[in-house]
Structure formats: C-alpha cells, structure tokens
Fold these 3 entries.
Entry 1:
Amino acid sequence: MEVNNIGHMVKVGYEMYMNLLERAVEKEKNADKENNIVKQNINKEVKIDVNVSAYISDEYIKDPIQKILMYQKISNISNKEESLDVTDELLDRYGNIPIETQNLIKIVEIRNIAREIGVNKICVNGENLFIETNDRKLRLTNKKTNDILVYIQLQLNDLKEKLNEKESYT
C-alpha cells in the first residue's frame, strides 16, 4: 500500500476506508459488465430476411477492388452520420445511387437499430413483419408505406422510443 493511501485510511478510519474501497471496486465491476453487454449487442448478428435486392451492381462500380472497398465501408456504417458520409461519397464518385445500393445502406441502418434495441431477427412474410428479441416476437401488419425497408425503420424507431420511455420510468 502506498503512503498516500495509508494517510487517507488513517483520516477516515479503517472500516470506512474498506467500505469506500469495496464500493469503488464494485462500481468498476458493474461498469465492466455494462460495457461488455454493450459490446455484445454491437457485435451480435441480426438475421434480416426482407426479400429485397441489396447489392452494388457491376454497372455502378466497375472496378472490383473499389466495389469490395465500398462493401466494407457500407458494412462498417455504425450511425446515421456515417451512413450520410458513405451516401455522399457514392454520389460524388459514382453518380446517382441505384435502388439496390440504397437498399443495402438501409439494411445496414436497420441492423444497427436492431442491435441497439436487442432485436435478433427481422422477417417479412407477405404483409406481415416479424420482429424477434430474446423474450418476445412481434407481428406487425398494415404497412403504411410501399417501401418495406422504410416501414421496418419506422417500426424499429417506434420500438426504440417505447423502450427508452420504459427505461426512463424505471
């Protein structure tokens, strides 16, 4: 034990010092657990089965190396700002973005929201949208838009808001 720590221990008393030390250690352990849970959610794969075309065509990006690099950039999108940056880069370098490539970006955005709120699987079957977490399965119908990916984003954002409201009350 360092001299400074002994000086602090003498000032506050041994028992109180041990209690404070124990609380500090417990706080660090809890912070580590929370960080691990966040890391697990970020790395967790989300199964997305939506039956839409989502790719970069050979006509849009002709160079295979550039195409692979762009797939990596799109895959690494982790927030809205990065999504906008990649979209801007695509527009600047290659022109108007085909719908299939726009879909690819939307799917990555959907994956990110799903990870954040603990969704494991998103599936579209006819007019039904299924969203699954570890402890529940939601079935949604009555699409409000013709673009299924926009509909999924809206539903996930609604779910996220409801979860945030629920957390703020607890």
Entry 2:
Amino acid sequence: MDEILELLEKDARLTAEEIAGLLKLDVKTVRSRIKKFEKDGVIVGYKAVINKELVRSAEKGVRALIEVKVMPQKDQGFDHIAERIFRFPEVASCSLLSGTYDLLLVVEGRDLHTISNFVAEKLSPMENVRGTVTHFLLKKYKEDGVILRRREANKRIAISY
C-alpha cells in the first residue's frame, strides 16, 4: 500500500505538511496525491475510532453482529440484496463473507429488543433472506488496529500466608 495511505490510515489527523516531512516529499506532491486518492474513491472518508463503551448513547446502546444467509438474485448476485439491507439505518456495516453465511452485519440499536425487532420485522421477512444468526457484542477490546482500553494496574491487595 502507498506510504501516504498507510500514514493516514494510522492517523487521519496528519496534515499534508506532516506527511511530507515524514516521507521526505514535497508538500504540494502530498496534497495532490491525497486529492487524487479522494477523487478515485481510494480514500472514502476520515473518522475517529471511538470507544463506544465509554460513550453510550440512548439510541445506540447495543451492538450485534448478524450473520445472514441470502439467496442471490439472478443477474444481480449478492450486491442487490446487500444494498437493500445496508440501507436500513440500524445497519452500521455490511460485508460479503465466504463460508456458511453470506453477509455479516454490524447492527446498532437502543436495546436488545430493538435489535431483535429489526431482525424479526425487517431483516428476516425479506424475500431473499434464508436465515440469520445474531451475536450480541458484550465488549470490544480492539477496533481497526486500535486498542480501546489500556490495561489498568492490578488494584488487588497481595495476601500471603
């Protein structure tokens, strides 16, 4: 992968000037390459990695991974059904998989019932959906290469006999 992309993937806050300094490149060159990456769809957005356990919101307090088995549509494959599914506001991400299930969704909702209602009322009744398996996320340790919580010092008192 391109060195500029690697740096931005690790820290999207880096400026073109900082990247140019790190890579010993001209700032103008770095800016034009970043603009080209954006124009070509290589860079599709910039984001911060948030530890959502520390910032629970009322409307998105629970997350689940949902495996979905689908029947691909003739002449459209998986793309058409995947697009119908990822358009739901509850779906935070959607990926095509190999293996037993075809799609992996990350779904966010207010509580367990909100997510189970999404599966029962919106996802499962879809014409091409053949089955689902829902896994509720209990705790996340690492996301996109970033460790979310630092190990706290052991606060237990040592007891010896």
Entry 3:
Amino acid sequence: MVNYEPIIGLEVHAQLLTDSKIFCRCKTKFGGEPNSQVCPVCLGLPGVLPVLNKRAVEFAVRLGLATNCHIAPHSIFARKNYFYPDLPKGYQISQFEEPLCAEGYVEFEVDGKIKRVGLIRIHLEEDAGKSVHAEEYVEENETLVDLNRCGVPLIEIVSKPDIRSPKEAALYLAQLRQIVQYLEICDGNMEQGSLRCDANISVRPAGSSKFGVKTELKNMNTIRGVEKAMELEVSRQIETLEAGRVVAQETLLWDANKNEIVSMRSKEYSHDYRYFPEPDLVPLQVESDWIDEIRRGLPELPLARKQRFIKQYGIPEHDVQVLIDNRDLADYFEQVAQNTGDAKTSSNWVRGEVLRILKEQQIDIKASAVSAANLAELIKLINNGTISGKIAKSVFEEMRKTGKSPDAIVEQKGLKQITDSGEIESQVKQVLADNPEEVKKYLSGKEQVLGFLVGQVMKATRGKANPKLVNEMLRKELAKLP
C-alpha cells in the first residue's frame, strides 16, 4: 500500500420513497407477495406507454441541490439495452447524455479533516426486478424471478474517482446514506436493497498521474462490507502488479459469506448498452421557480448539523455523531435540550436510556412512548431536586410502558425526593446507631466506609433522600463523634 495509490469511484443507486413507481401507478412497498405489484407498463407488455412520476423528479432535484449539483433545465431519458431474466422489456429507461443533475460534490470528515468528493452526475432511472436463487432449487439450477421491483424509481449517484482508500469510500457512502435519509427521499436500507453500491477500483504507483486498469465490484450490501471488499480488491490488484501480471478489466462480485471476490463477467462499456433517446417520453423540463421552491424546503444536512451541535451545545464530537445518526433522533435530542437548557444531561439520556429501549423494542424514535417533552420534564425533575437520578430510572421505565408524564408517575407513586433536613438527620442518626463497627472504621481513617453508610440511609428512605444532603449530613454527624 505504501508504493501504490488506490483510485476509487462509487456508483450508488438509491430507491426513492415514492408511493408509486416511476412510470406507472403500481405500489413500491417492500415485501409484497412476488409479482403482485405489477401492471402492463412495468411488465413491458406491447402497446403500453410510460408516464413520468413528478414526485420522483422532485426527490432527484432535492438530492441534486443538497449535493451542490447544477440542475439541468432540460434533460432526456434514454433506453439502456441489455438482457437479463428480471428485465422483461429487454431495456431499462435511464438517463445518459443529458442527466438531471451534474457537477456536484459531497463533503465528509476523515480523521478530523473535511474531504470533498466530486459528483459527475445524478440521474433518474427505473429499477429492474429481482432474481431469487432459492436454495431448494440449487440442484436443479433454477432461478425464480420477482418483478415487483421493476419500475421502482432510482437515482444513480456517480462520483468522480476522488476516493483514495477503502476507508474514505465507506465514510463517503455513510455520509451519502445520511443525506438521503435526512432529505426523506430514501430509507437507506442496504440489506433490503434500497441503497446499493458498485465500485470502480484501480491502483497506480504512488506519485503517478496515470490511471490503472479498473475493475467493477458489485453486491456489497453493508457499509462495512464495502470497506472490506475494497480492501481485498486493492490488495489483489497490487499483488497482481507486483507479480508482473496485468489486471483484467472485469466485473467482480463480493461474497460476504465467504469473504471473497469472484469474477462475474468482462467489464461493459457504455456503447455495449446501445443507448438511444427514449421515444415514448418527451424531454424533461424543470422550471427555475420549482427548483427554488424545492431548495427552500431542504433541511439542515448532517455535516452542518454536527458542526452546529458541537458549537451550540458544547458536547463531545463522539456524542454528537451518535445523536445525528438520523434526522428524527437529532430532532428529538434538540427538543429535549432546548426544553431543559441542559444539553449534556439531555445527550446522556438520549444516547443511554432512549437508545436502549429503541434497540430492545426494535423501533424508531417516532414510535417511542417517551416523548421529547416528557423526557425533558423528567430531566427537570432531576435538576430541581424533586427526584434522584436513581428514582428517575424507575420513572423512565414507567414512562416507556405507559406513556404517562413523569409528573403524574412521581405523584401517583409518592417518589418525590426527601429534602427536609430534619427527616434526613433523623435517618442518618439511626443508621450511625445501627452500624457502630462501620462508624469505628470511618473514624480510624477508612474513608470508603462513608459510601456504605450513604447506601444504608438511601435504603432506609427507599432511595428518596437527596444523596448530596445525606452525604453532607453524615460527614457532619460523624465529625461530632470522638
């Protein structure tokens, strides 16, 4: 790796969260019965005509603006011709010579520095179906085809070869995934195929300006898988060159189960697809007023939000990275922090208890029974001394089970913290009287015994005594003893 430099460009396909497909009214919902969400248009039957989905265009423009692209006022669709069993028309409607978005960039952090990767284009196209290689048919060499995915709207994001390591590629993909999720145009689920990544990889001697022979790597369905597969391919190409052999230009598949790369076919060129303008669709015209309207609706994007959270709330970068993982969680945290005025405690609760229950229940933050307003009220009860941090944990559990407010739970269960010095003093004296041996140990210099005595007072008050007052009162009473 010291003597060679990887050159990497990514082609990322994102399924758009439209209700219907790009050229017909069929539903796009994942997980339907095979071949149940199809019609003559997406089945490619003779005599049908496609009608472009405006929402899909809007989503593509939204990403183009978010990634600093030029939005073309005039673009055209083309037919990309190739044969595959799950492509019933024998061609895919895509964009080629005149894409909707071009010449943008994505910025992300690498080792504390901002890295910029240029984008060649973002274009619209339709998805193909899915070939299912069911295990029960392996011996018979049969493949099943599900055409539900045919016609689902896609955007393809093609980067420039600006990526210089598998780590950078993984970070770029993670940032792009966050962006489409923040824009609410794609759910980013790589395991379900909503976000798919192909990589063009070559290596060249360090210091050289000439590109090497590239291979295309497919079938990577996790961000970690992307990084691992690229590491293997970069190493393979370097070993090939070091052995005096030539790297073949081919398409490769990543097998995550076996952790290996296998050859699929020789690499295609654009002329292999025999592109020509789609005769059934008129050129796409996008008005500048509509672009401006979409631009005004863009949310704050992940990198900008991360930088603002660090500056505005003064919380560590690692904590912020967890909080901005998705837009809904970041919104939730911000509501809690603004209501409490205590960003650090708000961050601790969101990253701790809130994320714990989301993981346990396998739900997202929108489905949580603990609203941002109620969590903020709970934190306020801790900060103003109404309940202790320990009691707050039990209150939180009740909140997530019932959806009730913390005030109501504290009142119903009588959980208010004891702050009356007279009552605490009485309990402290009783504990000291009941534990003469521990008192002797403390007076002989064993300071750690104080923790045990504090625990006994808290136990006697069922955890409701103010721990700070208990500590102070114990020290005060112990200081009076000979």
